[in-house]
Task: structure prediction
Amino acid sequence: MDPNVLFVGDGAVWTSAGVAAGIDLCLHLVRHDHGAAAAAEIARTMVTAPFRTGGQAQFITRPIPAAIAARDDKTALSHQAVIDLTTPLLWL
Result:
């Protein structure tokens, strides 16, 4: 995990910092596989920037309290994934 980037990848596994960063990641993958012109055309139709450098701080100024995070299904999923990355999450 790198809090200073919009997305990160290792081989075939990529992840993003959130919804908008997910769009950045998708455009990056299109640019990598199909070229800058294809990524730029998709970005134009989405009315978004074809490339953002990242590096900006996240906008959440303080962490979510543990009691609230414990009730969040996404938090439970991420904790399970970190426990053992080789075990499929069958309950999805």
